[in-house]
Amino acid sequence: MIDQFWLIFLGFAAGILGSMLGLGGGIIVVPVLTFLGFSPTAAASNSLFAALSNAVASTISYSRQKRIEFSLGLKLGLLSIPGTVLGAVISTDVTPGIFKILFGLVLIASTAYIFLRKKIETREKTLSLQMIIFAIGASFFAGIISAFFGIGGGIIFVPLMVAGMGMAMKKAAPTSQLILLFSSLSGVITHSILGHPDFTQAGFLAIGSFVGGLVGARLSLEIKERYLQILVSAVILIASAKLFFDSLSEDVVFFGF
What we know:
The chain is mostly helical and 257 residues long. Helix content is 79%, strand content 0%. The chain is built from 10 helices and no strands. The protein has helices spanning 6-21, 26-35, 40-64, 70-90, 96-116, 129-149, 154-164, 169-194, 199-219, 225-255. Helix 3 (40-64) runs antiparallel to helix 8 (169-194). The longest helix has 31 residues, at 225-255. The termini are far apart. The model is unreliable at 252-257 (pLDDT under 50).
């Protein structure tokens, strides 16, 4: 158990970034666990415990700052639950090579979001029927991504609220944490029923992520976002490149080249 204490520090770092960006810390936790040889289901399910813990801490902090739209967050969070159940189930049979390729694409999309998050802000909109239907479908899809990759689904929810619904970024990222509380909780329950997580490892990640979530919510009021964008994006792009390289290497070995 002692040699797994480093997971607390991993959860802490991921919790800070996940809270500040509204993405959840899985974009940091999952690549690290994958590089260390964890299976896709173990990496995703363990990471979801950190995402849940981070979402709880962030929601507490952001609610005190009065930056959460609770009505919208509750609705989108509940809509994501069926998708999380499906995502956890289909993650059972995914091969490491396919998982790495797909997650590499998710990381690239995350990088694009980080740089464009301020530019996609729009004036407040009146929700049309088409947007409501789209939001329902997007929430279901985000739930699948959340449980399949163990990342929470914020990469879908934040752009949806900002670009589609006209919410200000300063409220979208905090509201995303409330949504992730629902999606990650249902994903954790489903993965646990399926026997995917290592509860000791998941617990260490959750401890670090909870503290990181509290710190990240506080830092979000002070830190210059540009510096954070560059740092996080560099780390994510390096991680995605390695995921693609590893998946290609596995394919070469598989085909006997």
